């Protein structure tokens, strides 16, 4: 086949794909009507993950699975927008890592609202001003975002999905490296690049900003200032990248939660779920040296895998802690229900924070 013949074949395939996509979106719009008439949720995390899983299983290449997921993410984003306009709150301003994570999950066809703080995101979703919120929860290098964990104790919002985003940090400035005297960024971003900054800018002052995107805005205006942020922020504000990939660890990844007012159902097919809880031992923690082990046993005895446990001060009295726990399985699983019943016999607080698909 010559070049023109190949192009004609591609054009024909494009016409077919557009027609099929529009047919798919019409069906999605019909589903949206049924959901609204029955009071159901438009965005269903477990269904989304099931669709993506089936698509990947059918992929025989040469397209890579990650590229196929990205394409279908946008198809589903367009479908959601037809079913019902969604507003997603995220930690702003525009072009932050949280904004990027939100777009990775919900695509470009929904509406986004930048919020100043994580607390603002919780409030917006609780009041129904936003449909869902996207918050950073932990980083593979620097650990958990403590403000986010603390907000779950009092909030009735549920975790409905999670997102993993590889984070690449760049040094962004209008000044050359040798002229940089101040480096702005979010505290976690500065920490994730600590060793690089010590080696290359040992005399520069490190200054915390409210977000990586805000840091780029400051660096754009101040001579001798730089920001640590992602490429999206550099492009959005038109500031050059002086040095790329300055994070201390190559596999720097941040985990984000999607929070909503209603919980997610079980994943279908071969899908797996994760569940998060916050648990308090109350007075047992100090009175009983084996209290923490006793808290873990109901899960272990039933083969429920514990993937994370982290303590946070309750702020109610000295040396009183909440334990944030991630386990495999869904809240509605029979074994999970049995384990929770055991826990509730001796723990004053066992709060379910949500169940969500294990895949990102």
UniProtKB/TrEMBL annotation:
GO terms for cellular component: cytoplasm. Keywords: Amino-acid biosynthesis, Aromatic amino acid biosynthesis, Cytoplasm, Isomerase, Lyase, Multifunctional enzyme, Phenylalanine biosynthesis. One of its GO terms (biological process) is chorismate metabolic process. Residues 280-357 form the ACT domain. It catalyses: prephenate + H(+) = 3-phenylpyruvate + CO2 + H2O; chorismate = prephenate. InterPro entries: ACT-like_dom_sf (IPR045865), ACT_dom (IPR002912), Chor_mutase/pphenate_deHydtase (IPR008242), Chorismate_II_sf (IPR036263), CM_dom_sf (IPR036979), CM_II_prokaryot (IPR002701), G/b/e-P-prot_chorismate_mutase (IPR010957), Preph_deHydtase (IPR001086). PROSITE patterns: ACT (PS51671), CHORISMATE_MUT_2 (PS51168), PREPHENATE_DEHYDR_2 (PS00858), PREPHENATE_DEHYDR_3 (PS51171). It is found in: Cytoplasm. Residues 1-87 form the Chorismate mutase domain. GO terms for molecular function: chorismate mutase activity; prephenate dehydratase activity. The record marks 254 as: Essential for prephenate dehydratase activity. The keyword Phosphoprotein does not apply. Its EC number is 4.2.1.51, 5.4.99.5. The keyword Nucleus does not apply. Pathway: Amino-acid biosynthesis; L-phenylalanine biosynthesis; phenylpyruvate from prephenate: step 1/1; Metabolic intermediate biosynthesis; prephenate biosynthesis; prephenate from chorismate: step 1/1. Pfam families: ACT (PF01842), CM_2 (PF01817), PDT (PF00800). Residues 87-261 form the Prephenate dehydratase domain. This is Bifunctional chorismate mutase/prephenate dehydratase.
């Amino acid at each position: 086949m010559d070049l023109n013949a190949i192009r004609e074949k591609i054009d024909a395939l494009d016409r077919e794909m557009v027609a099929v996509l529009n047919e798919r979106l019409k069906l999605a719009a019909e589903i949206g009507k049924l959901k609204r008439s029955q009071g159901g949720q438009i965005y269903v995390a477990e269904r989304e993950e099931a669709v993506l899983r089936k698509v990947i299983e059918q992929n025989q290449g040469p397209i890579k699975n990650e590229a196929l997921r990205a394409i279908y993410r946008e198809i589903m984003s367009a479908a959601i927008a037809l079913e019902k306009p969604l507003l997603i709150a995220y930690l702003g301003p525009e072009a932050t890592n949280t904004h990027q994570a939100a777009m990775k999950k919900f695509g470009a066809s929904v509406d986004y609202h930048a919020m100043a703080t994580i607390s603002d995101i919780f409030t917006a979703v609780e009041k129904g001003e936003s449909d869902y919120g996207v918050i950073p929860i932990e980083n593979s290098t620097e650990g958990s975002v403590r403000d986010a964990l603390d907000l779950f104790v009092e909030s009735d919002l549920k975790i409905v999905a999670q997102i993993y985003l590889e984070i690449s940090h760049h040094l962004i400035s209008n000044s050359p490296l040798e002229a940089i005297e101040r480096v702005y960024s979010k505290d976690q971003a500065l920490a994730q690049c600590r060793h690089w900054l010590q080696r290359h800018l040992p005399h520069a002052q490190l200054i915390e900003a409210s977000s990586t995107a805000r840091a780029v805005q400051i660096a754009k205006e101040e001579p001798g200032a730089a920001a640590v942020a992602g490429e999206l922020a550099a492009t959005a504000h038109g500031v050059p990248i002086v040095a790329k990939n300055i994070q201390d660890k190559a596999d720097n990844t941040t985990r984000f939660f999607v929070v909503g007012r209603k919980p997610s159902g079980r994943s279908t097919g071969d899908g797996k779920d994760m569940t998060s809880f916050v648990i308090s031992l109350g007075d047992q923690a100090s009175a009983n040296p084996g209290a923490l082990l006793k808290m873990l046993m109901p899960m272990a005895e039933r083969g429920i895998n514990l993937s994370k446990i982290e303590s946070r001060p309750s702020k109610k009295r000295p040396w009183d802690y909440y334990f944030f726990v991630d386990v495999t399985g869904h809240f509605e699983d029979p074994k999970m229900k049995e384990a929770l019943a055991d826990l509730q016999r001796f723990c004053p607080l066992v709060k379910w924070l949500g169940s969500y698909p294990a895949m990102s």
